[in-house]
Amino acid sequence: QQQQQQQQQQQQQQQQQQQQQQTGTEGAAPAQPLPLHMSLSQTVPIRYGQAASLKAALDKQLRPCRRFELQLSGLVCLTNEPKTRSFVCIRVAAGLQQVLRMVGQVDAAFTLHGLPEFHEDPTPHVSLAWAPGDQTGVLQKWLGSFSHWPVAMQVSQAVCQVGKLKHTVWQA
Hints:
Elements: H1 2-23, H2 51-62, E1 68-79, E2 85-94, H3 96-112, E3 125-132, H4 136-143, E4 151-155, E5 157-162, E6 165-171
Antiparallel strand pairs: 1-2, 1-4, 2-3, 5-6
């Protein structure tokens, strides 16, 4: 019986190795959740004295938010406004209205502090990678070779990062 168990374990290991060789994941560590984030504002400089007040305003504005389902689908290439960086992104497919509502609430807190609002017509997304300069043409061609699959997750937290410090301003 012990010999049978050992044989079964060896067969399972062999099957896993074959599968890893076929998928190109041989020797790879088990998949871990990605630390994905979605920006609800532009990166803006603030004065040291504004940090506490801004955090409090964000906390107040985002407090009514509830946890929601978010689905990402569709790879796209975007650039920042000065076109100094290009990003490979996955767009928000479901949960878009909740994300846009949160962007509006962050904009309200920013306006109180004389900070610029987010883009006029935001494209909520999660950035997966970036490259220097405007690489949209090259990256769009490259993205065309990938299949698009939906990714679903629960959104339950908003974090304000000031310098290297991170402050949770909303948690459901």
